[in-house]
Amino acid sequence: MASTISRGSMSMVKLTVPLAMEQFFRILVSSVDTFMLSSFSGKAVAGVGLVGQYVFFLQILFNVVCIGASIVLSQYLGAKKSDTELNYISQASSVMITIISLFLTAVVIFGLGPLLSCYDIEEEVRRSAYEYFLIYGGFCSVFTAFSLLQSAILRAYGHTKEAMIVTIIANLINVGGNAVALYTPLFAGYEVQGVAWASGVSMIVSVIILQIMIVRKKDVQFSFKGIKSVPKRVYQMILSIGVPTAGENLSYNLANIAQTAMFSTLGTYVMSAHVYAQTIIRFAYALSIAIGSATQIKTGYYVGEKKSDEAYHRLYKYWLYATISSVTLVGVCNIFKGPIISLFTDPGLTADTTSSLMLVSFFIEFGRCMNLIFVGGLKGSGDIKFPVVYGMFSMWAIIVGFGWFLGKFLGLGIIGFWLAVGTEETTRGIAMVLRWRSKRWMKHAIV
Asked: pTM value?
């Protein structure tokens, strides 16, 4: 039977805290990965950091389905749709995620070599990038895709704690695997490949545990029985939401890849500093990411329950919390940045550049908070077109175009490129606030 629970009344704290803990732990383990690799080879760090963008790129493509399913489920749950309708969403998304992941596996296997040949980088950096991405981004991508979908479905039902637990377990496996690959003779000469397989095995375990949890949750509708009878309209509905929504993230990632290609010619130390600064500062906006994700879920519930006015007012409060938390954490990271940076690299040009980038992050994170919260609200409401159209123009004009102007033309280097990112985040964030204030999103509900 369909649930009679008012999903909109679910505590924001109950949604946000597990999401925040998941983000913090995920970032912590990612930082440990970078630290462990840096003790092995700075060039390996640069190579893995380079293809890290493409790992994120693949996840964006998987999120075409995951985000679409999550938004539709949130509104359906708010509207108290039948169990059959809810199960259709899970079934259709499973079919699509399988097709997409298998296709992308083939693309990675056959296209990775030509892709890396486009970069003007040292051979050791190129080899590390190739080995890592072929394994984790190629052979293991099916498991990454399914774990993302399973987690998205659990979160849509409000089970953020369960997704957090699985993330912690998977990442502990990843760290343990890294230790075996880097600090034991088992992978001597193949350390980067060992790190990649550690990440892949963690995703395989994640898929198994998540499926067990889904089966045990009586309110979660995710059965493969009758999967061939899913109506075509369900696939169309998920894609109509997922494609343009993921398009915003895809455009952002591609713009950053283009920007990275421009500053990759500045030297390996610049690439390493970029990776180190991003690794450290991610802690500062983990809570904002969690609040943004929870905002999307809550907005979907409210819209499904026909409570759009309540969603409108609550979003400003979520934005305030996210901004205060993010800016405060950026400040903490900068206060202790000396000893933190020393964990990754010795004093010198790389450390100095990393320190400068962390100061610029104040500017970036202030604007990013607006995007995370208000875009989350717009997505949850079903208002997809405006964020995508505006975002694609803004990202390429400012991150790439203005980034080239500051970094290359004016000679500001990596600092100029990061300033461009901050400018784009802030101006786009303001545009999303104005869109929310207009209340035009209220007419885009799915149900």
From this structure: 0.78
